[in-house]
C-alpha cells in the first residue's frame, strides 16, 4: 500500500554515483527522448506504480512496430504469401518478444528498427527504388541513436553494399551512419576529457 501511494514530485535530480557515470551516460538517447513525454504526462496524474505500467504499455506499443516491419521483411524474402504469413505469425507468437520489450528500455525501439533496416537493405539489393535507400539510411541513423548494436549492423550493411558493388548506394547510406555516429563520437570525446582530467 505504501508503494501504491507513492507519487513523483516533479523535481528531477540527476544521479551522481559512479555507476550512473559508467552506465547511464553512454546510452543512446532516442528511446528515452520518445518515452519521456509519456512518463512526464503520466507522472503528473498517476501513482508511481501506474506510471510504470503506462510506460511499459507504451514500450509494448513501440515494439509492436515489429509486426509491419517483419511483414515487409518477409515479403522481401519469400515469394509466396503463405510463407510471409507464417513468418509474421511466428514473430507475433514468439514467447520472448514482449517479455523482453515490456521493460522500460531501448530494446522496444531497437527490435522494429533493426527489422525495418534489414527489409530496406534487401529492398536496396533487389530493386532500384529510392524509398528503400532513404529508409535504410534513416533507419541506420535512428538505430545508432537507439542502441550500440547498430554499430556492427552499420558496418555489415556497408560491407554488404560494397561486396555487391553498390558503391553509389553506399555513398547514400554513409550520411545516415555519420549522423548516427555523432552520439558515439560525443561519448568518446567525453571519455577522453574525463581521462585527461583524472
Describe what this molecule looks like in 3D.
- The chain is mainly alpha-helical and 198 residues long.
- The protein is 76% helix and 0% strand.
- It contains ten helices and no strands.
- α2 packs antiparallel against α3 (48-63), α3 (48-63) packs parallel to α7 (107-126) and α4 packs antiparallel against α5 (81-93).
- The chain is flat.
What percentage of amino acids are in beta strands?
Answer: under 5%
Number of strands: 0
- Radius of gyration from the CA trace? 20 Å
- Overall pLDDT confidence: 87
**Order of helix and strand elements from N to C terminus:** HHHHHHHHHH
Tell me the quaternary state. Answer: single chain
> What global shape is seen?
flat
Report the span from N to C terminus: 46 Å
Helix coverage percent of residues? over 70%
Largest sheet: none
SS element count, helices: 10
Structural class per helix/strand content? mainly alpha
Uncertain spans: none
List descriptors:
198 residues; mainly alpha; 76% helix; flat
Question: How is this structure best summarized?
Answer:
This protein is mainly α. The chain has 10 helices and no strands.
